[in-house]
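Lay summary. Proteins are chains of building blocks that fold into shapes, and those shapes determine what they do. In this project we predict the shape from the chain. Here is one chain we studied, written as its sequence of building blocks.
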Amino acid sequence: MNYRQVDLANFTLSYQDIGKGDAIVLLHGFCGSHAYWDRIIPLLSEENRVIIPDLPGSGCSAFSKGNYEVEYMADILNELLSYLEIEKITLCGHSLAGYITLAFAEKYEERLRGFSLIHSTAEPEIEGLKVELDASIELVGTFDGNKMIDQLIPEIIATENLETYHVDVEEA
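And here is the predicted shape, written in a compact code that computers can read:
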């Protein structure tokens, strides 16, 4: 499906660019990929240009040791938009990507037509959430991604949805 790669900020970023019209950018959450959006892309791309990057270290994008702060991710997104010659976007950030969306809104407000936070918040981190994120970061540091994903899935997908959409969960 129209999958491309570009070198930005000394980093290879993979992305999809589908449709024509006003640009919508879809950012996946932690441990996700472009696949999060597979069901909605056909609907959105009927009348819009939809850009779906795999964030650094996710999906088909390169993983490298270095800066993974949300402000840096916002800078990478800004570089991608410049490369694609897109001036204004509607930005949708899921979960952790909601923080990237907010960082992008602060740094590059002039590029935004609007934005949406999906299963995310503009509120500061809750202390319990910070402990969970720190534990996830520790698992990532051990490169035991499967164990981390096994722990994460029951927290983000309701049990009845795990049963109903088990094929989609396995593919993502």
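What the prediction tells us: The mean pLDDT is 81.
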